[in-house]
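Sample 3 of the quickstart, ligand histidyl-adenosine monophosphate:
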Amino acid sequence: MGQTLPGFREFYPEDCITRNFIFQIFRQTIHRFGFEEFDGPLLEPLELFTAKSGDEIVSQLFCFIDRGGREVALRPELTPTLTRMVVTRLATLKRPIRWFNIGEHFRYERPQKGRLRSFYQMNVDILCETSIRCDGELIFILIQLLQAFGLTADDFSLRISDRHLWVLFLEQFAMDGSQISQILTAIDRFEEGNEEIFERKISKIAPDCGNRLCDEILQLRQCKDLHSLKRFFPNPREGERIAQWETLFRLFDAMQLNDYVAIDFGIVRGLAYYTGFVFEAYERHGQSRALAGGGRYDNLAEKLYGTPMAACGFAIGDVTLENLLRARHLIPGPKPSIQIFAIFDSATEMEALAICAKLRQRNIATIYDFSDGTSFAKQLKRAGKSGACFALFIGTTEVKTGQFFLKNLLTGEGESLSLDEILNRFSASGCLAK
Ligand code: HAM
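Result:
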C-alpha cells in the first residue's frame, strides 16, 4: 500500500514543473510547423493493438475484461487510435493532416533506466501525404524539438533506415511475408557481439538461404553512407528507392541536418506497421534507450479499416529525454510562482481579503496565513519561507492612509505604495514586478 506499482511515477510539485517545462517546449516548437492538437481515449478495445502493432506491443499490453465483458487495453501507443480517428472523418478533414498529441501511455515492460510502465509521449504525424518532403519535414521537426531544449549535434543523433529497402532486399531470397517479418524482428533485436545467436536465428527462419543471407544482412547493417548504400544495391530493381534516399539527403543538406543524421540499417523498429523510411533518435554517446522513434506507415489504415491512407510520424518519450536533459543540466530551476504574501490581522481582515481578491483578479498570485492571531513578525517569517517574492503589509495604519508597504523578500528593500501603484507594478500577464 505504501508504494506505487513498479514502473509508475508520482509527480510531486517539482516533478510537475519539470514535466510542464518539457510539454511547454514541445508545444511551442510544434506550433511553428502548423500542427493541431488532438487526443484519444486512454482505454481502447484490445483488438485495436493486437491487430497490427506487432508481437512486441501485444506482449506488453495492460489489458483486462471490463464489467461489460469487453476485452480492453490501456493505450501502449497512439498510432492506431489516430488512424481510426482520421479514417472516420477522412472525407471532411483538410489535407494533409498535421496532428500532434501529448499524452500518457502504458506498456508492461521490465522497468529499467529509460523504460517505465507509464510514460508520456508526444506524437507528431502527417497523414494523407506520400511526398518524401513529408518524411524530411518530420525528421526536421524531431531535430528542432531536441534543439529547442538546448541539445546539439554533440548530444544526439538520428539514425535512419528503410523498411521498404529491407523488404526489397529480403524478397531476393524468395521469402514469404511471415519470414520477412520474423527476420526484421531478429534484426531489430540483434546485439553487437552476438553474431552467432543471430546466425542461428536467421537459419531457423530461412533454412534454405544458407550463410549468404546472414552475411549480406550484416553487410547491409554496415552501410553508413549513401555511397556504400549505392554500392550495396547496384541493380535497377532497387534504383528507384536509392534515388529517393538521395532526395532525402538533398533535403537534409538544404535543412542543414547533416551533422544530426546517420544511415543505420540496424534500425527496423519494433512496431510491425512501418513501410518506408524509419528513424530513431539516440543520445550520441552512451548506451541509453531511444529518445524517439517513427517512420512511414502507409498500409496501417488499409489493414485496420480497408481505407488506403498515406501516413508518417514519430513519437518522442519523456523518460529518456528527461534523463538526458538532467545529465546536460538543461532543466531550469523552478521559477517562483507566488508573487505576494499578504500580511494582516483580524482588525484589517475584511479590507485585506478585498485587496487579495483584486490582486488575484489581475492574475497576481497571492497567498496569506490561514491561522488567526499570528503576529506580523511571524507572518513575515512565514512569507519568507513560502517562496513568495513580496510581502504586502495591510495593517490598520496602511488601511487608514491607503499606502501599503510592499517588501521585496529577496532584497529586503521596500516602499509604501497605493493599491493602484501596486497593481500597476505587476504586468497584466501576472509577471513579477521589477
Ligand atoms: P515507439 O518507438 O514504440 O514508437 O515509442 C516512441 C518513444 O516512446 C520511444 O523512443 C521512447 O522514448 C518512448 N517509450 C516507448 N516505450 C517506453 C517505455 N516503456 N518507457 C518510457 N518511454 C517509452 C511508437 O510508439 C510509435 N507509435 C511512434 C509513431 C508515431 N510512429 C508513427 N507515428
